[in-house]
Automatic annotation (TrEMBL):
The keyword Repeat does not apply. GO terms for biological process: DNA recombination; DNA repair; telomere maintenance. This is ATP-dependent DNA helicase. GO terms for molecular function: 5'-3' DNA helicase activity; ATP binding; hydrolase activity. It comes from Carya illinoinensis. Its EC number is 5.6.2.3. Residues 323-366 form the DNA helicase Pif1-like 2B domain. It comes from the Eukaryota. The keyword Isomerase does not apply.
Amino acid sequence: MGIWGRHKLFATILVYYNPTNPRYLWEHFEQDMSSDFQLTEDSQSNQQIVYNLVLEKIFSNQSAAFFIDGPGGTEKTFLYKALLATIRSRHLIALATASSGVAASILPGGRTAHSRFKIPLDSNKNSICSVSKQTPMSRKEAIEALDRMLKDVNDSELSFGGKVVIFGGDFRQILPVVPKGTRQQQIDASLVSSYLWPTLTKICLTENMRARLDPDFSNYILELGNGMPPITIDDYVKIPTTMLIPYQNDTTSLDQLLDAVFNDISEYSANISNMMNHAILTPKNSYVDEINNLLIQRFPGDIKQYYSFDETIDASEQAIMEDFLNTLTPNGFPPHQLLLKQNCPIMLLRNINPSEGLCNGTRLICRNFDHNVIHAEIAIGHQTGKKVFIPRIPFLPKSDENSGFPFKRTQFPIRLSFAMSINKSQGQTLDFVGIYLPQPVFSHGQLYVALSRAKTISEVKILIRPISMEEPENNSTKNIVYTELLSIAASD
């Protein structure tokens, strides 16, 4: 239960249940119900400077736009939560957004930027502050549209309509997706290429809390993110042997990776919190499906199968195309055959009800099954523990995707989440991370993101398929870093 849920529960007990000793009740749970105030007391020195600077702008009714930069472990999210708690405690409006559902679920009242600011717009001109997490994943056009929208809503020519806007992230991480885009096109789509970038006040958080646990590992990841380690041929870097699963063959080595991450999956099935903090990350959705299909077979319990209904847009082609459509899984679609078990982990693939925590990327636990509804429980973020119902919904390929055959799939908007794509994992911290690389990463920041989900080197295992069978002990993999983008981001 989140901090606001605890506040409401305490107030409800006082008003409706007439407790015999309310003082004892308060003193017993004071620490739990005061964590939002403790956020400000625990802030690091440079976090405190940022915190004070932002609040000064807000409470003096000044406009400002900040970009808070810092690698994983500098506790940017901690700072965002402190700001949101303080602003809201003064009965002011602060909007929390992120570029992905997973990242948004970590913030109190968080929503994806797309769902919060979509057109047609349901905006609130009384809001005074917007906090946006994982900004480097957003296209510059989205940020520029936000600027124009806030100017229109507030009838102001000031940047972002005179509001205080806080962007944050790490440009070492994954950039906006540009389908079939070149390196330069990806950089051009980034916020650093926007007319807004020079207008933002840049603040860098430097004190890394994770580094206290394993400073060598933290420094290694930071060097990877900066493109600094010795590079061999074609952007390949050496991986420390302590993190590697020795490659023997595809089947044996993959089994070893699964065992390393989920060494006793029956035990994990009884400990949901532990299971949700372990995951295998891999670059492509096809590899995600491969691992999930293996692990659902290991997971205890009876299989429940759900099949999609696939129909062509042109009804005359349905009879000859249906079997073929069943074999397709376009990007963002659930599979035709969905294999589930009670208490298995799943991930939502659509924004169903963002205000209730049901965002694209939200991780849940399957609790029960009906014919047309799945009973589930949210497993991450501030809605953890909430019971929800997930219906079947229709899926259509995006208009800009070349799917070959336009069709509609009606299926539950979920997939298994023992494994997830590296892109989907951004914004999460895990207790144990497996990284499956049958092929190298293919975009800027992916290796950095995968490794930085863990806190120490002992919490990571990597399986790399060798470039060739003549090199079965290969311990190198590709690390793609757009150093020219990092140079722009670091400049004033």
